[in-house]
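dumping this here before i forget
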Amino acid sequence: MMNGMFGGGMWFSWLFWIILIVVVVWAIIQFGNRNQPTNITNNTERETPLDILKKRYAKGEITKEEYERMKNDLS
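structure:
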């Protein structure tokens, strides 16, 4: 009579393996997400064209005349 409807303790064995697989998959996903940055957005998305132009001028990539011409073109 111990075997009953579920085959005795056999369903505990299935439950154990199912839970073990779920925990292993969860751990793999958590470990994989740990290596990725949480904020994937790029700072250049928030910069305006004028900000980029100012940085280029500050770095010496363009001359003052080029800066003024490009600034007027952006306005």
